[in-house]
Design goal:
This protein is α+β, with helices and mostly antiparallel strands and 532 residues long. The chain is built from 11 helices and 29 strands. It is elongated and about 110 Å long.
Length: 532
């Protein structure tokens, strides 16, 4: 196609020649079938002119190395010309040979469809292919096929069997399927499924200038609110949307004590309108807030505290609607089932408990750990809960009978974070030993151990495809792992020899410790933490 590229002189960088051609060859050979067959015709002329250019610039040894690396690809179709090229050793040989001179003086014509042309142009624009572009400018004529171009369809009989001839009355918008198109579709699906996972965009929320230390944080499933639990027993809500928070009026407030002398003031409060605010404080606990969790509908919030209680908050009125008592010591964590009707809690009293939102007493008590139960997490099917403890073990419990069905040991210190894969097959655990362990729930065996963190890991979460795991903690970095297969260790972000090859990328947050990670259904990774 004339005028598709800007013209410039051809350079003879030895290393760039081999690298750029190898990338082009791999790109074309890995292309999907409709484009691969057309673009394959480009490889031979580019190969010939790269080889001749190296010889013309006096690079005899690199030229013959380049020839030996790539000539087998064209041995069947261009064997006579390859024999001629093999006998060239210098610039003088290139000039004296008539066949080579004729080849260099004329342009090699390649016919491409419009889609194939745009496909290769997009590659040349995004990759470092200056030499390839120069060769196409000088020695190759790209011609776009048109519907009116007469073509002789000379193909093998086996190929003709796969052809589907449409009748003249077939409308243009009708989808005609055959084995070729279905094979291409299967190839695309297989490449997406088996290829490396796509890294997510990350949105990090940092708590600044907090007078009391942040002890817990959480984000609503609809990404409209973020909450922070602090050591001064206050929970604060912030809006993540332009809309400010306006609590609905309520008759009962648990954050204040009403006296008889406050009657007139109470009437005035009810009659006055509440001004919109970016932040709302929830008060009711009498100790540090150690855990928070939003309900799936983003309308309520659960919190647990050092005061041994769990509270349920209505986010519409920003008021406490229920208090749950049952633990004898501080409650370290809380988690809701995906259905939103049950929740679990874990405590310093070495037990975990199962609750229902409409009951103020526990329905089940899970007993078995020999030290603090630091974290609890519901299985995606809501029939099991997992607990991590300071006794360095992870246990999987059945909700039906409160019995331990899996015991997973291997950590060297307290376990502070758990995460189930959405497909329910794996469980990730991490904590103070800086290691992340992936467990197979069907057998209870260890699948992988991920190394890379340099401090305590506080948060884990899987993406919705159960292929990528994100982790964060006190080392002020978010790490993303491919839990399916080990990836190449030549990643620019991976410089530590003690880092697992499953690491896809490391994203430093400078001075923000990561206390919460949450993947959205659109593969956005949301993170939150406080400046150390």
């Amino acid at each position: 196609m004339d005028g598709a590229f800007s013209f410039s002189s051809i350079s003879g960088d030895v290393v760039a020649c081999d690298q750029q051609y190898t990338r082009l060859k791999n790109f074309i050979l890995d292309a999907i079938e409709p484009f691969r067959q057309e673009l394959y015709l480009l490889l031979y002329p580019v190969f010939v002119h790269v080889y001749l250019q190296l010889l013309s610039n006096g690079h005899k040894t690199p030229a013959h190395k380049f020839y030996s690396h790539h000539f087998k690809l064209f041995l069947e179709s261009h064997k006579p010309m390859l024999e001629v090229l093999k006998q060239l050793y210098s610039k003088e040989d290139v000039i004296k040979n008539r066949d080579v001179t004729k080849l260099r003086q004329s342009k090699y014509r390649v016919k491409l469809s419009e889609d194939a042309l745009q496909y290769i142009l997009q590659y040349l624009k995004t990759e470092d292919c200056v030499l390839i572009i120069q060769i196409i400018n000088h020695h190759i004529h790209l011609q776009v096929k048109s519907d009116s171009d007469p073509e002789l369809d000379l193909q093998d009989e086996r190929r003709l069997e796969d052809k589907v001839v449409s009748t003249p009355g077939t409308p243009k918008n009708k989808v005609v399927t055959n084995e070729v198109t279905l094979g291409s579709l299967r190839q695309c699906i297989r490449r997406v499924r088996d290829g490396p996972p796509c890294l997510s965009s990350i949105c990090l929320y940092t708590f600044l200038d907090s007078t009391q230390s942040l002890s817990s944080t959480c984000i609503t499933p609809d990404r409209s609110l973020i909450c922070g639990g602090f050591e001064n027993s206050v929970i604060k809500l912030w809006s993540l949307t332009p809309k400010k928070l306006v609590p609905e009026p309520t008759d009962v407030r648990v954050d204040r004590i009403n006296l008889s002398g406050d009657y007139l003031e109470d009437i005035q409060d009810k009659m006055s309108t509440v001004a919109p605010s970016e932040c709302v404080a929830l008060r009711g606990h009498s100790g540090s807030i150690y855990g928070t969790c939003f309900t799936p509908d983003s309308k309520q919030l659960l919190s647990c505290s050092e005061d041994k209680t769990i509270r349920l908050w209505n986010l519409g009125t920003c008021s406490n609607v229920c208090m749950y008592r049952g633990h004898n010591y501080p409650v370290w964590g809380v988690d809701l089932s995906i259905l939103g009707n049950y929740f679990g809690s874990c405590s310093h009293d070495r037990t975990a408990k199962l609750w229902s939102l409409d009951r103020t007493f526990p329905l089940r008590t899970f007993i078995g750990h020999t030290s603090d139960v630091d974290v609890i997490k519901f299985h995606p099917n809501s029939n099991y809960v997992a607990t991590g403890s300071s006794d360095k073990s992870v246990r999987l419990w059945s909700i039906q009978d409160a019995k331990c069905v899996r015991l997973m040991q291997g950590h060297r210190s307290s376990i502070l974070s758990l995460a189930f894969s959405p497909d329910g097959q794996c469980l990730a655990s991490a904590g103070e030993d800086r290691r992340i362990k992936i467990w197979d729930l069907s057998s209870g065996n260890l699948l992988k151990e991920l190394k890379g963190h340099t401090d305590t890991v506080y948060s884990l979460d899987f993406n919705k495809d159960s292929t990528v795991l994100a982790s964060g903690g006190l080392d002020c970095a978010i790490r993303v792992w491919d839990i399916r297969n080990a990836t190449s260790s030549n990643n620019n972000n991976i410089s530590d020899v003690h880092t697992s090859t499953e690491l896809l990328g490391t994203f430093p947050t400078k001075t923000t410790s990561v206390q919460h990670l949450q993947y959205t259904k659109h593969n956005l990774l949301m993170a939150a933490g406080a400046i150390q």
